[in-house]
Amino acid sequence: MIEINGHKIDPQHYIDKWIKWALEPTLATDNEVTENVQWLYKNAGLKKPKVVIFREWEEFMKYDWTSVASVGTSLMTSVRASVEASVRASVASVRASVMASVASVEASVGTSVGAWYWADDLAFADVFTDTKVLDEKKVLELEKYKKVLSSQRLAIYTDDVCYVLVAPVIRRNEEGKLNSESSPSCQWGKTGLYYLNGVSFEKGLWESIVNKTISTKEAISLENQEQKTIAMRFVGGDKLFCDLGGKVRSKDKYGELIELDYKDVNNDNVVYYRSLDPSKNEYIYLLTDPKVETPQEAMTKAYKLQVFNLTYKPSLRT
Amino acid sequence: MNKVKKYIGGDKNQNYQGDVSVIRLDSIKNIVFKPFKKELKVALGEVTGHSHRVITKTPEKLSWGQDENGYYLKIEDGAKASLVHEEHETHELDGGIYFFGSQWEYDPLEQFRKVMD
């Protein structure tokens, strides 16, 4: 909790709220996006621009940007002059602690929303309005900026034209990392960016991994260690066991530890826990800490049972 | 096909439904319990869309909470609930406090990551 103007606030509440806002796809129509951009230019003292709106990632990426000269700096200066100066003056004493929270917001969603630079004072506009450190006029102005920016997550501003890529649909896993095994994790229309557990993949490689058509040889040949780790997880224990010469290292009534003749990034031999899934009567494999000695210890760690001072000792598995 | 594996001498308070643990606890501290609504999804498979979820006929007698480890469920004495999943046998739960945890896979790059169905 931090205290602003006599009000105690929980930064996490505002972080969660902002992330939710930042990850929502653009709902604004082309007309609304255009009006918003023109309002930004007007506020910055620039002439009314033509607005080009992209709703597909690939169209945006294929555009010839070589001759485009950005005036983004002057727009940013205008926004900062209008928003930041007054916000900072009002909350100077607590700004540092609030901004420390912004860092976690940026780390969490920065790459996915394409507008990390807005995750600054505007991201925490609600903090300053809820704690009544800003006057009503400034509150309304902040709200307008938020509305404008929520319709243009990535924009290239030039003298005559503003190019806007609208916000995509974002898919993340429970840990908050960009992840989807069935569609782009950042999706604009039919195109997008592909991620697994926060790691970026080119579309073809992503498809071969999620469809499990990638071979063991291809997976272990990937130069990017993060991609390789994920690819090997998808290749699966059965295939790795056969292709990489696995041998049973230890065994108990809960399963087996299989050690592969292959080293991970820490130069440890890769070790899998293996047991029969009673619901399907087929083997399940779980990558495990190479330092564990028994399947029981592997499962104690896998279920984090040490939190309750327990060791893996099931009565029933279904 | 036998879809249930029983272990002689196992801990009666430790059961597992696929990759979800069902741990019965004596007590729990520092968890804020909220009223139970229609159901509680304790794990969801992205690809299959199948979920491990708790259902009951008496939601007013259940409450739930959550922390970074997983989900907690409090069932009043005399009430009952079920942990169901499309591919696994149902677990019947009676009065008590339960913890539902996911399986975490070792990741040499970041130690452990949660397993997704």
Topology of helices and strands:
The complex is a heterodimer of chains A (318) and B (117).
Chain A: E1 2-4, E2 7-9, H1 11-22, H2 30-43, E3 50-54, H3 57-62, H4 72-113, H5 125-130, H6 136-150, E4 154-157, E5 161-165, E6 169-170, E7 186-188, E8 191-196, E9 199-201, H7 203-210, H8 216-221, H9 225-235, H10 237-243, E10 247-252, E11 255-263, E12 269-277, E13 282-288, H11 295-302, E14 316-317
Parallel strand pairs in A: 3-5
Antiparallel strand pairs in A: 1-2, 4-5, 6-7, 7-8, 8-9, 10-11, 11-12, 12-13
Helix pairs in contact in A: 1-4, 2-6
Chain B: E1 5-6, E2 14-17, E3 20-25, E4 34-35, E5 39-44, E6 51-55, E7 62-67, E8 70-84, E9 91-102, E10 104-107, E11 111-114
Antiparallel strand pairs in B: 2-3, 3-9, 4-7, 5-6, 6-8, 7-8, 8-9, 10-11
Can you tell me about this structure?
With 318 residues, chain A is of the alpha+beta class. Chain A has three domains: 2-162, no CATH class; 168-235, no CATH class; 238-318, no CATH class. Chain A contains eleven helices and 14 strands. Chain A has helices spanning 11-22, 30-43, 57-62, 72-113, 125-130, 136-150, 203-210, 216-221, 225-235, 237-243, 295-302; strands spanning 2-4, 7-9, 50-54, 154-157, 161-165, 169-170, 186-188, 191-196, 199-201, 247-252, 255-263, 269-277, 282-288, 316-317. In chain A, strands 6-7-8-9 form a four-stranded antiparallel beta sheet. A four-stranded antiparallel beta sheet of chain A has the order 10-11-12-13, sandwiched between helices. Chain A has a three-stranded mixed beta sheet with strand order 3-5-4. In chain A, helix 2 (30-43) packs across helix 6 (136-150). Chain A is elongated. Residues 109-119 of chain A have low confidence and may be disordered. With 117 residues, chain B is an all-beta fold. Chain B has one domain. Helix content of chain B is 0%, strand content 56%. Chain B contains no helices and eleven strands. Chain B has strands at 5-6, 14-17, 20-25, 34-35, 39-44, 51-55, 62-67, 70-84, 91-102, 104-107, 111-114. In chain B, strands 2, 3, 4, 5, 6, 7, 8 and 9 form an eight-stranded antiparallel beta sheet that branches. A two-stranded antiparallel ribbon of chain B has the order 10-11. In chain B, strand 8 and strand 9 form a beta hairpin. The radius of gyration of chain B is 15 Å and the shape is globular. Chain B starts with a strand and ends with a strand. The mean pLDDT of chain B is 90. Classes of the chains: A alpha+beta (318), B mainly beta (117). Chain A binds chain B through residues 173-175, 179-182, 197, 225-226, 229, 233, 253, 264-266, 268, 276-281, 286-290, 301-305, 307-308, 310, 312-318, and chain B through 1-7, 10-18, 21, 23, 25, 46-47, 69, 87-89, 91, 99, 101, 103-109, 112-116. Strand 14 (316-317) of chain A pairs antiparallel with strand 1 of chain B, so a sheet runs across the interface.
